[in-house]
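Extended Data, record Copper transporter
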Amino acid sequence: MKIISIVFFVALGSVIGVLATPYLAQQPAFSPYLAGMATESSSDSSEPQPLYWVAPMDPNYRRDKPGKSPMGMDLIPVFDEPDEGQTGPGTISISPEVMNNLGVRTGTAEMRKLESRIETVGYVQYNEDTLIHIHPRIEGWVEKLYVSAEGDPVRKGQALYDIYSPELINAQEEFLLALNQKSTRLERAAIRKLRLLYVPEKSIQRLLKTRKVAEHITFYAPQSGVLDNLSIREGFFVKPETTLMSIGALDEVWVEAEVFEKQAGLVKLGVEVNMTLDYFPGKEWQGKVDYIYPSLDEMTRTLKVRIRFENKDRLLKPNMFANVQINASEDSELLMIPREAVIRTETQNRVVLALGDGKFKSIAVTLGQADQSHIQVLDGVEEGERVVTSAQFLLDSESSKSSDFLRMEARAEVMGDSDNEGPQSAWVEAKIESIEQMGDMAMVGASHQPIDEWGWPEMYMDFPVVPEVDLSSLAVGMVLHIQITKYPDHRFEISGVHIPDGAMMEAMGQDDAMNSTDHSGHDMSSISDDMDADMNADMKSDTANDIAHDMKDGAK
């Protein structure tokens, strides 16, 4: 009975509500409320509803409601796109709330100058324009040596050595004979002969004054500088082809540095160079590129450049190891985008275009030269267009499913083809971190620079070494060039090395000073100090799907 009463009153209330609604709508007090309800209902019906939710790093992981992906990330809603035909295949749309949650940021494709800094190493050398090699012009014996060791400073006019030579004695006697005969023509010829034999003017004037032949002739330094290549001692027999010693001036020095083949086009004569030395922390030298060698090293594929530096305070010494920064830049402006916008894969390079109104699309691009912050775009992007610089990998994973290019299929084909290829090799600069000999097998730990053709960033790896490489020539701390060979079965090994001049001495110097010198501020591991963040992001993008599936399987 009670249930029947409740049903009766509910039905009666519904009838009264239906009959009273037209009347209440005419009353001012109730009109706004009813209008608001109608507006809210209308807006709710027009709000787009997600088709499904997808994992950011695995487009194959879909759910019909919000949640977490196997990697613990929030699922992203996917909406229907009725206007896809107008915006093109691969265009996706996300709401402002999702854009804010993902942290989407954009940059602009703009014309700007390429400002590239090439980080490399070099060695201080004498300025060969002022380096003098001293040879005798007669045969004789070194009777007395006034200098004792290489590196000794010498002054112009300082006595270097005495020579006894029968030829010099004969030349003096001819001069005295010409004087006795009072023949002006013979006197001039005799003096000319003495001068051609490099007899000092002091000795000629003394001979003219005393009229006595000197058994030993003293020779003097033609310029001030530092003694180098001292190859004689007292009692040595010397000939005109004998290099007695060299004298190099240190007011100006050369530094020879090497740059990789891909950087050779950026180096031009006269560009400014900054140099630092671990021997003088905190001090920086400025110089300019003076000469670019015409050919590359056939083994290391590097180009040698020569740089001039003023050295008035004589702090720079020959064979010092230097960190060199070449400030290469283009005179003309290039179309460039931020480096972090680039998505690198094995088959192509892409960026995500921001089309406006929450729409995005992945497109393929052709890249050119790069500096520390931007990279040139040769094709695919026009000036003024905006590209995504943050969260672009998440947007690309969704856009690629319906884009003009089939990334996953193309990648699979390339990987399948690569299995049939032979081994590939690449040269790269590296620093030796460890050397281990395990029976017939040797392992070398090395921190190497990026290898762009393989998509490798700067990183540390342990490599087996082929038997042809002489391990006795390597040392921990050595900076050198190594040849890495990559095999189709994903094996890697060091198949060749090139040790620059002075690299062994530099490594030994580092080991000797390890206990007494603070090396926390040193950086001897690269030509480039910064690590390519886009390379790391690329590796993360390429392997994210596999990681997600592994975690999903583990959860099961």
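Summary. The longest helix spans residues 2-25.
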